[in-house]
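Entry 12.
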Amino acid sequence: MNPGQHAISVEQLHKSFGENEVLKGIDLTANRGEVISVLGSSGSGKSTLLRCMNLLEIPDSGIVRVTGEEVLMKKNRRGENLPADIKQVERIRSRIAMVFQQFNLWAHMTILENVMEAPVYVLKQKRAEVRDRAIFYLNKVGIADKLDAYPIHLSGGQQQRAAIARALCIEPEVMLFDEPTSALDPELVGEVLQVMRDLAAEGRTMIVVTHEMGFAREVSSRTIFIEQGLIIENGTPQQVFDSPKTERFEMFIAAMM
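Predicted 3D structure (tokens):
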């Protein structure tokens, strides 16, 4: 894995919802193997940035590239941005996995079935191969003993670990985490963060929206701070936390302590 190669990047990304301009020209590049923690107050644009990266939201303007491939866009009659090639979007999405704040597991499926769903039914991979891989990743996140259980029988931390295994099972180039611990009871946060630490140690490319300052300091290779739709801090954790450039980030850190 060449750390100098870009895994995912955005240039001059803009996104509005009605009159509310949420992203105001974001530039961000994640190299292969980087772990980028994205910090910011509620409503700053963090989650929208992730959703534009994996095309759950279509940016109004700007460029998204995944493993060097630019997502092609076109304008409709109303001047709105749309993907020019749906098959390209499907192919690019298969390289990106997202772990959400809410676990989004299918309640009527076992944990194993949840993890196998996308590779089998979306990516059309062979069930036997996917089953072996799903069990491998459930073991990696420490819940292989729960593979026949239904989500309702798992704790929140176990459900989130199942969601991480589901993301891993498509073997993505990039993993996006949208506040993966914020819906958990405090005593369950640690088990999910440990799984994420292990993934970072493997050299996986991860972009993590989080309020966990310890993770941002200790695990990230880079930390960014978004304020009102713009990146106003961007550097190593040591640079950002020890020598912040903006008074706004100093206030944010103080409020989080």
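Annotation: The longest strand covers residues 6-17. DSSP finds nine helices and twelve strands in the chain.
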